[in-house]
């Protein structure tokens, strides 16, 4: 069969490339740290300094390209840099530590659990959201626990009898 011949429907297969296939991944997953937000903060400050510096040195030269927009852009980028730096919390609690804290809080043996990273507040403080089910089959209880990703404290929690019908 020539290489340029069209494929039949039997020969067409949809598959992920090997580097995107998570089924073959072995080992613990490392959640990205929020302190990486500080890198763009520094970049914002550098560009802000360039804008303000250009405005300060070229504004009186009658340049048609440098005007008060450079000043306002510099101020805006500097403010964005401050926010980005302030929101760059160091994620000190991983999902396993959060699960241990959540299990201690709910007071029942946990079977299935699910962890999700979320952010709260204007400074985007990282918070683990854990959904927990008791170890019985079917689970009799379920709980939702929010664990602070910076210091590991319990932010909020809720436990109830499992209302789901597992039959």
Estimate the strand proportion. 15-25%
Order of helices and strands: HHHEEEE
Runs with pLDDT <50, length 5+?
Answer: none
- Contiguous helical run count: 3
Question: What's the CATH class label of the largest domain?
Answer: Alpha Beta
**Mean pLDDT, all residues:** 86
Main beta sheet strand tally, sense and closure = 4 strands, antiparallel
Looking at the structure, what is the overall shape? flat
CATH arch. level architecture of the largest domain: Roll
Number of domains: 2
The percent range for helix content is: 25-40%
Put the structure in a nutshell.
With 167 residues, the chain is α+β, with helices and mostly antiparallel strands.
Descriptive report:
With 167 residues, the protein is α+β, with helices and mostly antiparallel strands. The protein has 2 domains: 53 residues, no CATH class; 67 residues, Nuclear Transport Factor 2, Chain: A. It contains 3 helices and 4 strands. It has a 4-stranded antiparallel sheet, with helices on one face. A hairpin with a 4-residue loop joins strand 1 and strand 2. Helix 1 runs antiparallel to helix 2. The protein is flat and about 80 Å long. The termini are far apart. The model has no long low-confidence stretch (mean pLDDT 86).
